[in-house]
């Protein structure tokens, strides 16, 4: 019987250079390596995610691959962005009629309802700012007309090969998939779903 | 065993205080110091090296206490600095306010298997108390460009780093969650909440 040796490993990338907390790398806590080699924690990254949405591009295997623009910043740029984030957010709210959250519709698939079932709309798009969740009431803005609706389900966008790295789907700056079960829904790409 | 607090000189029980380099700090002095020296969350894992390659054994969240590294003769000076910082923050945020909380995240409570449906619909605002203590009553207020939004606090919770547990108060300098009954879509990561 040989003795079982164990060693301890810390699951962080050292100290976040913005807030002084540990930049954790477990459970989607999302520490970010910046362009100049410095590290920021997931909580600091979340504050500016709406300014730097995760982008996806097609790779050689014909799969969509995530590209994180926060990783293209250096530390000074990240600090400046965090310092300006609230002002930027207020500007975005103001230019969007002070809605609390805005989702941009990119694609819509509607499964027709039957005699006893309502149509099911599967909507993919981006959370521009704010946050959306399951079972929440919101509005669709379609050609300037508002329609009351409720999110039946909300989850990660299945088209992307790289899993979305948030703890909760529906966060600002990430794509997500919204399902709405409702009759007489008017929705098309380019429409907005908003929360007030 | 009786010890003397390095901050205030009070006689304290060894098991009721924080050990620092070359001395002890009583709970009251430690509470005063949290505004400048918050505990830091990290995760560690134990790696099994029993000849089978590295096999993960266990991952756990732990809180590191920076006070443990402070030297006992620095404590009185650190308390003075903490008091100065508290006064400066009172001036900055308004002395009438009970507490101030900086938001890291804001999400709908997920229902875990076996939990009652009652928790669904609760909203959890995670962050750190940067001034004062927050108890389970009162109101949160956040100033946006268009208006001041308020909500009633339902409960406060402390975080172990993994789960949240109900508590009577999140004390100054500590991390925790403010729970409210209804959605707070007007609160964003990075926000400053005033507790009234
Ligand atoms: Zn940070
Ligand atoms: Zn003391």
Overall description:
The complex is a heterodimer of chains A (196) and B (196). With 196 residues, chain A is mainly beta. Chain A contains 2 helices and 14 strands, in the order βββββαββαβββββββ. Chain A has helices at 42-48, 75-95, and strands at 6-10, 12-15, 22-24, 32-33, 39-40, 55-58, 64-67, 101-111, 120-129, 137-142, 145-150, 153-155, 175-181, 192-195. In chain A, the strands form 4 sheets. In chain A, strands 11-10-14-8-9-13-12 form a 7-stranded antiparallel β-sheet. The radius of gyration of chain A is 20 Å and the shape is globular. Chain A starts with 5 loop residues before the first strand and ends with a strand. Chain B contains 2 helices and 16 strands. Chain B has an 8-stranded antiparallel β-sheet with strand order 11-10-16-7-8-15-12-13. In chain B, strands 1-2 form a two-stranded antiparallel sheet. A two-stranded antiparallel sheet of chain B has the order 3-4. In chain B, 33% of the residues are buried. Classes of the chains: A mainly beta (196), B mainly beta (196). The A-B interface holds A 2, 4-12, 20-22, 24, 26, 43, 46-47, 82, 85-86, 89-90, 93-94, 98, 100-101, 129-131, 133-136, 167-168, 172, 195-196 and B 40-51, 57, 59, 64, 104-108, 110, 120-121, 144-146, 183, 185-186, 188-191. One zinc ion (ZN) binds at residues 16, 18-19, 21, 40-41, 43-44 of chain A.
Concise structural overview:
Chain A is built from two helices and 14 strands. Chain A is mostly beta strands and 196 residues long.
Which helices and strands, and how do they pair?
The complex is a heterodimer of chains A (about 200) and B (about 200).
Chain A: E1 6-10, E2 12-15, E3 22-24, E4 32-33, E5 39-40, H1 42-48, E6 55-58, E7 64-67, H2 75-95, E8 101-111, E9 120-129, E10 137-142, E11 145-150, E12 153-155, E13 175-181, E14 192-195
Antiparallel strand pairs in A: 2-3, 4-5, 6-7, 8-9, 8-14, 9-13, 10-11, 10-14, 12-13
Helix pairs in contact in A: 1-2
Chain B: E1 2-4, E2 11-13, E3 17-20, E4 23-26, H1 27-33, E5 40-48, E6 55-64, H2 75-93, E7 99-108, E8 123-131, E9 134-135, E10 139-143, E11 148-152, E12 155-159, E13 164-167, E14 169-170, E15 175-180, E16 192-195
Bound molecules: zinc ion (ZN) (2 copies).
